[in-house]
Write a structure and sequence with these properties.
binds 1,4-dihydronicotinamide adenine dinucleotide; 15% strand; 267 residues; binds D-galactaro-1,5-lactone; globular; 7-stranded parallel beta sheet; alpha/beta
């Protein structure tokens, strides 16, 4: 397995990176963790911790210098005001891509989200080439990120794997997550495939485990060689005590669940 020479991980104080953190040193010779918040004690295999605000273009440009792999998990991770989402997920992401371009490249994992396609009905199985249909301001920012990734690939040759992550938590927290759950182990194995790929290009990949219910079909990106190994089968029955879902409830009809149902954040 190939290792990154110097891997940067943003959003390192967040929930998702916390879950995979101890698996990251095996993927890189040098590992730099970054966030706007404190990341706690440095653990074995972590080369450096850098506090950095994605809004600070000069600091971001410095941060990405010399990194051949960047796992970009930093940012606003759920619905919020249009202003905050714009500042961090739009301008902050642009700062990151511009930094990478100025530094002469680097392979990026962009943590996109199922909320980029959240307004499709669940009865429709989606593929990576399904056009976006976001369910929130947050989802729109992920569509922007996927588009920025395309621009930087086709115009500047910067490779990105945009992962439309389902629900990456220790375990599913509701019935919907029985379909959307991505195990931390499968996330790590996907990162390893991205580092290993001789030629990555700019794919969109759905991030969910080998769950019984499959809403997303990754056949188009089979060249990555990523096969999820975990499944929510181990949690079967976990939500049986809850009342049955109302099939007409918007939170049940759409892929995006509660994000699709919620009203405008600022009303
Ligand atoms: P999180 O909210 O726990 O972590 C995000 C991190 O970004 C936080 O530690 C936060 O301090 C940092 N951050 C926020 N503003 C920043 C700024 N201005 N500068 C630098 N860092 C800043 O979210 P989580 O769950 O860890 O998600 C990580 C990424 O994956 C996010 O981009 C999220 O949108 C995406 N994602 C996560 C999913 C999941 O199931 N956990 C599902 C789909 C997408
Ligand atoms: C996301 O994009 C969020 O970051 C995460 O907190 C979950 O809400 C997840 O989607 C989901 O859809 O379960």
């Amino acid at each position: 397995m190939m290792k990154a020479k110097r891997m940067l991980v943003t959003g390192a104080a967040g929930g998702l990176v916390t879950l995979i953190r101890d698996g990251l040193p095996a993927l890189a010779n040098e590992l730099v963790l970054s966030d706007i918040l404190d990341m706690g004690e440095k653990r074995p295999g972590e080369t450096d911790h850098v506090l950095c605000d994605l809004e600070d273009a000069a600091a971001v440009a410095d941060l990405v210098k010399g990194c051949d792999v960047i796992l970009h998990f930093g940012g606003i991770s759920r619905e919020n005001t249009a202003d905050l989402i714009h500042r961090i997920n739009v301008v902050g992401l642009y700062n990151l891509y511009e930094g990478v371009r100025a530094a002469g490249g680097g392979r990026i994992l962009f943590a996109s989200s199922n909320h980029a396609i959240g307004f499709y009905p669940r009865e429709q199985q989606l593929t990576p080439s399904t056009p976006p249909r976001p369910d929130s301001n947050y989802g729109v920012s992920k569509v922007y990120g996927e588009a920025l990734a395309q621009l930087y690939w086709y115009k500047y040759g910067v490779e990105t794997m945009s992962v439309r992550i389902g629900s990456c938590f220790e375990k599913p927290m509701d019935r919907r997550m029985m379909a959307t759950w991505l195990s931390p182990g499968d996330m790590l194995r996907l990162i390893a495939r991205m580092i290993d790929a001789p030629r990555l290009g700019c794919p969109i990949v759905y991030g969910s485990s080998k769950n019984k219910q499959q809403w997303w079909d990754n056949t188009e990106v089979a060249y990555l060689g990523w096969e999820p190994e975990d499944s929510t089968e181990q949690f079967d029955g976990m939500f049986d005590h809850l009342p049955p879902d109302d099939p007409h409830d918007a939170a049940i009809v759409y892929h995006g669940g509660g994000f699709a149902k919620a009203g405008h954040f600022e009303d």
